[in-house]
Design goal:
single chain, mainly alpha, two-stranded antiparallel sheet, elongated
C-alpha cells in the first residue's frame, strides 16, 4: 500500500478511535439537546433553493468544456508540483482512491452521523437534526455550485495534461481522451471543505457531543480529512497548489460563514431577510453564475 494511503488511513483510524471514546454527552447535567431559540430555523423556501442549487450544479456540470482557457501554474504552483507529483502507478492509484474516500467520509459525516445518528436518533432532537442537516446541505450545495461555475468560467487545465504534450502519458490517464478543464476549483475538494466548515459551525454553536473537547476534536478531525482529501490530489497531478488553496478558501468560507450569517448570528425574532443562492448557468462552451432568490 502506498505511503500516502497508509498515512491517511492511519489518520482516519485515529479519528475513529478518538470519536469512539466519546460515546455519551459529557455535560454534567445531561441537558437535552435542543435548538437554541435564539437561532433562526430553516424554512421551506431555503430547502427549495438548496435543492435548486444542487440540481443546477449537476446540470451545469454536463456543460463543462474540455477546451482549456487557462494552462500552467502561477505563483508557487510549479515548485509545489515538482515536489509533490509522482509517476509511480501504485502511488498514483492509491492516492486517488484515498482522496476520493476521504472526501466522501468528510462530506457524509455531518449529515449521517451528526444530524441523523446523534441529533435525531441518539438525542431524540428532530429539530436540531433537521436544522443542522439542511444548513449543511445548503452550504455544500452553494460551495458545489460556486465550484462548477468557476470551472466553467476559468477552464483551467489539469496539470497532468502538460505531460501529454511532452510525449509522456502519466499512469491512470488517457492522453487520447483529455479530461474536463476543471482544475479551478475542484468540486470534490470544495464540497469536502464546506462540509467540514459547516460541521465546525454546528459543533461550536450546538453541543452535539456535549460541548468541550469532543466537539472541538471532531471539528479538527473534519478539517484534517478535508485537507487530506483535497491535498492528496496534488500527488497524482490532478490539481495545482493554488487550486487546493482556493478550494479551502471557498469551501471553508461558505461552509463556516454561511451558517453563522444566516442562522446562528441572526435572532429568531428578527424579520427574516430574503435568502438566495448562487447557481452556475451553462452558456454555450462556457458558463456563468446567477442568483436564485426566495422571499
Amino acid at each position: 500500500m502506498p505511503q500516502p494511503t497508509r498515512t491517511a488511513l492511519a489518520a482516519l483510524a485515529l479519528v475513529h478511535a478518538a470519536c469512539a471514546s466519546f460515546p455519551e454527552r459529557v455535560t454534567d447535567e445531561q441537558a437535552p439537546l435542543v435548538w437554541d431559540p435564539a437561532y433562526r430555523s430553516v424554512d421551506e423556501g431555503e430547502l427549495v433553493v438548496t435543492g435548486a442549487a444542487t440540481a443546477a450544479a449537476g446540470i451545469a456540470a454536463l456543460f463543462r468544456s474540455r477546451s482549456a482557457h487557462w494552462r500552467g501554474g502561477v505563483l508557487f504552483d510549479d515548485w509545489v508540483r515538482a515536489q509533490a507529483r509522482t509517476d509511480d502507478p501504485a502511488t498514483h492509484g492509491g492516492t486517488v482512491f484515498t482522496a476520493d474516500l476521504l472526501a466522501g467520509v468528510v462530506s457524509a459525516y455531518p449529515l449521517v452521523v451528526d444530524s441523523l445518528i446523534v441529533a435525531w436518533w441518539k438525542e431524540d432532537s428532530p429539530e436540531v437534526a433537521w436544522n443542522t442537516a439542511v444548513i449543511t446541505a445548503q452550504s455544500m450545495a452553494l460551495a458545489g455550485a460556486v465550484a462548477v461555475g468557476l470551472q466553467a468560467l476559468t477552464r483551467r487545465e489539469q496539470p497532468w495534461v502538460r505531460q501529454c504534450r511532452a510525449g509522456f502519458e502519466p499512469p491512470g490517464t488517457d492522453c487520447e481522451d483529455p479530461p474536463l478543464a476543471d482544475a479551478f476549483i475542484g468540486f470534490q475538494g470544495t464540497v469536502a471543505f464546506a462540509a467540514a466548515g459547516a460541521l465546525c459551525a454546528h459543533h461550536e454553536a450546538t453541543p452535539l457531543y456535549g460541548g468541550g473537547s469532543p466537539d472541538r476534536f471532531v471539528c479538527l478531525a473534519a478539517l484534517l480529512g478535508a485537507t487530506l482529501a483535497s491535498g492528496l490530489e496534488l500527488i497524482p497531478d490532478r490539481k495545482y497548489a493554488t487550486d487546493f488553496l482556493a478550494e479551502a478558501a471557498v469551501g471553508l468560507g461558505l461552509g463556516y460563514l454561511l451558517p453563522y450569517l444566516l442562522y446562528y448570528d441572526t435572532p429568531a425574532a428578527a424579520a427574516q431577510p430574503p435568502t438566495g443562492m448562487l447557481v452556475p448557468l451553462p452558456m454555450g462552451d462556457g458558463g456563468g453564475v446567477g442568483w436564485v432568490q426566495t422571499f
